[in-house]
Amino acid sequence: MTDYQGLHRLDARVAVVTGAGAGFGRATAHALASHGAVVAVTDIDGEAAETVANEIERGDAFTLDVTDETMVAIVVDAVARRHGRIDILVNNAGLGARMPTLDLETERWDRAMTVGPAGSFYAARAAGRHMLKRRTGSVVNVASIMGLVGGAHYPNLAYHAAKGALVNMTRALACEWAKDGIRVNAVAPTFSRTAMTAPLMGDNAMVERLLEATPMGRFVEPEEVAAAIAFLASDAASMITGAILPVDGGWTAR
Question: Does residue 252 sit within a domain?
């Protein structure tokens, strides 16, 4: 008889989470650990990574700038050496650039593209080398509803472009690696009250407009995004690859 509860367990699996020092990444580290995984908590803020690693039962902390492809490879390889395998990669690191396009400086555009799509590529390539050897693994990318729609009540071109790229990277990599037993999916969260959105959430009129655009009438909690990531990483999603799962209270259903 199928152990349906057991399908959600991640016992003895090794996960790498980028941008895990706060927000969705921190919640994801907690969610994966609660399901039994060993979690490599990585963040450009090494102290934040250490704090989160100490919060969970089985966590390692690594300082990681995902824009540095050499550093990404070194950290991923270090995790694999320490634990003998890498089963799960969560590409969570990213940043926004809320401003009119004519005010968007090339340096800011480049930074959004390097942290988001490029950083996720570096991490997937590094982790994929280990997953492909064992012909098993799960990659979950943290995209956004902004990767699925063109409007957000304010201009944010670089973020839209970065998350849109991540959405189709997810599909392309899922197709490429499916025959090798590696699944690649993404979550697309709506707005949440995190440090990254604090300036936005300080605008009461904007908050009201965003809530009105969300059929469920509230913002997503980081734990709700983390729960979706943990599901996609588990055997409960063993036949799911190339999927973009909105965690958005119905935003993209309108």
Answer: no
